[in-house]
Write a structure and sequence with these properties.
alpha+beta, Porin, twelve-stranded antiparallel sheet, 12 strands, 19% helix, 46% strand, elongated
C-alpha cells in the first residue's frame, strides 16, 4: 500500500513537470540568445558645442576730397575699409559718412557698438590758403554709434565721438538714408547728413590767434561750437558675388555756424565741400574663439 502511494506521488510529480515545460516553450536553437543576449544600450548622441564665427569685410576706397575742411581745391586720398559682424547676421548698410564701426549689439532693426573716424593732419605747407596758420596733427575720434531702421528701406544713425590728437572736442554725426535694392545685385541709397561739434573740436581748425593773424593777414577769430555742417549723400553698390562688391558715392556738405564764418573759410575757402569716391570690398568668414 505504501509502495503504491509512492508510485502515485512520482506519477503526479512527473505530470507537474511536463505541464510546466509545456507552458514555457523555449526553442533550443535560440536558447543562448534568450539567456545570454546583453541588454541593448543606446549610445549617447554628442552634439558638438557651437563655435561662433565672424564675417570680416576689408577693402579700399579712392576719394577725391577737399585738401582741408573749408578748402576750394581737392586731392586724391586712399581710405581703408574694415567691418566685422557675426556670421549669419545681416550685412548692414554702410554709407561713406559712417565711421569705422563694429555692431556688438544687434536686435532686429536696432544695432549699436563702438565707432571711430580719422581726421587727416593739416599742414601749413600743403596750401597757400593755410599760410601762417600752423599745423594741426592727426586726430582719432573714438566713440559709439546707434542705428535704427524704422522700415525696411530707411536707416537712421547717430554717432558720438571724442577727439584725441589734433583736437580734443566732441563731434556728433546724424544721418538718414533711403536704401533701395534695384536688383538682386544693385542697391541705391542716399539721404541727409548733419554734424554738430563742440568749440574745442573746431578751434584748432578755424580759430585765428593773434600770432596767426600777424603771420597770415587774416583777422583774429574765435570759433564756437554748435552746428558745423549739413548736407546730403548718395551711393550705388553692386555685388558681383556674395564675397566681392564695388561701390561709388558722392557726399556734399555745406559748412555752417561759426565754422562757416571763420576767415579761413569766408576769405580763402568755400562753404561747399564735395567728396566723390569709388571702392571695392571682399568678405570672408573666420572661426570664433568663443
Amino acid at each position: 500500500m505504501l509502495r503504491a502511494s509512492s508510485q502515485k506521488a512520482v506519477y503526479l510529480a512527473g505530470l507537474a513537470v511536463l505541464s510546466a515545460t509545456s507552458l514555457v516553450s523555449v526553442d533550443p536553437a535560440r536558447a543562448a540568445d534568450v539567456v545570454y543576449a546583453p541588454a541593448t544600450v543606446s549610445a549617447p548622441v554628442l552634439t558638438p558645442k557651437p563655435v561662433s564665427a565672424w564675417t570680416i569685410t576689408i577693402g579700399a576706397e579712392g576719394r577725391m576730397m577737399p585738401e582741408f575742411e573749408g578748402a576750394t581745391s581737392s586731392e586724391f586720398r586712399p581710405v581703408p575699409i574694415f567691418r566685422i559682424r557675426r556670421t549669419g547676421s545681416k550685412d548692414r548698410f554702410r554709407s561713406a559718412f559712417d565711421g569705422f564701426s563694429i555692431a556688438l549689439f544687434e536686435s532686429g532693426r536696432f544695432a549699436a557698438g563702438p565707432t571711430a573716424k580719422f581726421r587727416y593732419r593739416r599742414k601749413e605747407g600743403d596750401s597757400d590758403s593755410l599760410r601762417g596758420l600752423g599745423d594741426v596733427d592727426w586726430t582719432l575720434e573714438v566713440g559709439a554709434f546707434a542705428e535704427f531702421w524704422p522700415t525696411d528701406w530707411l536707416r537712421t544713425r547717430a554717432e558720438l565721438r571724442q577727439g584725441m590728437g589734433g583736437h580734443h572736442g566732441v563731434v556728433a554725426d546724424l544721418s538718414a538714408d533711403i536704401v533701395q535694392p534695384v536688383t538682386s545685385q544693385l542697391t541705391l541709397s542716399g539721404g541727409p547728413r548733419l554734424t554738430l561739434s563742440s568749440a574745442s573740436a573746431v578751434s584748432p581748425y578755424f580759430d585765428i590767434t593773434a600770432a596767426q593773424s600777424a603771420a597770415s593777414g587774416l583777422p583774429v577769430y574765435d570759433a564756437g561750437g554748435g552746428l558745423s555742417s549739413y548736407g546730403v549723400g548718395a551711393k550705388a553698390r553692386y555685388a558681383w558675388t556674395p564675397q566681392w562688391a564695388s561701390h561709388v558715392f558722392v557726399e556734399y556738405s555745406r559748412l555752417a555756424g561759426d565754422v562757416a564764418n571763420s576767415p579761413l573759410v569766408a576769405q580763402r575757402g568755400s562753404r561747399d565741400q564735395i567728396q566723390v569716391g569709388i571702392g571695392t570690398t571682399y568678405s570672408f568668414d573666420v572661426p570664433g574663439l568663443w
